[in-house]
Design goal:
Elements: E1 13-17, H1 21-31, E2 35-40, E3 44-49, E4 52-57, E5 83-87, H2 90-102, E6 107-112, E7 118-123, E8 129-133
Parallel strand pairs: 1-4, 5-8
Antiparallel strand pairs: 2-3, 3-4, 6-7, 7-8
Length: 141
């Protein structure tokens, strides 16, 4: 008997949590320049990020069942800071770092990894650890 195998093709969406969605909206939209796809009150924000979507959830609100019964999304949430790493071309890495610095965002760490790829770390207003890295950081390309 031949068994069919399913393959995960990538990450479609990544979620971070922030209690202050107004601050998150300004940070991810204005500072990082992501295009907002949707916002639902004080529950969540969705941003386009390359081929994927970055979800910003208010942890208090997503512990409550969704008001729209037509979309039976299970409750979920977390506490404490999360982490996400954004793919940034080598040519744009320094430009993005400078853009963040001009917006008053502190760069916590800059690393050249053993394989030669570079990245840097910073925080969003909710304290989530964010990283911008060259595509070669992971051997997936």
């Amino acid at each position: 008997m031949v068994r069919a195998t399913a393959t995960l093709e990538g990450i479609l969406e990544t979620a971070l949590y922030a209690s202050d969605l107004d601050a998150a909206d300004r940070f991810y939209g204005d500072v990082l320049g992501l295009e907002r796809i949707a916002r639902l009150d004080d529950r969540h924000l969705f941003f386009r990020c390359g081929q994927g979507v970055l979800l910003i959830f208010n942890p208090t609100e997503t512990l409550k069942p969704a008001a729209d019964a037509a979309l039976p999304v299970p409750t979920h949430g977390t506490t404490g800071p999360g982490h996400a790493c954004f793919r940034v071309s080598a040519d744009n890495l320094a430009l993005l770092r400078d853009r963040l610095a001009a917006a008053g965002v502190m760069i916590e760490s800059e690393i050249t990894w053993p394989n030669g790829s570079r990245s840097f770390y910073f925080r969003d207003p909710a304290g989530n650890s964010l990283e911008c890295a060259e595509p070669g950081l992971w051997p997936i390309d």
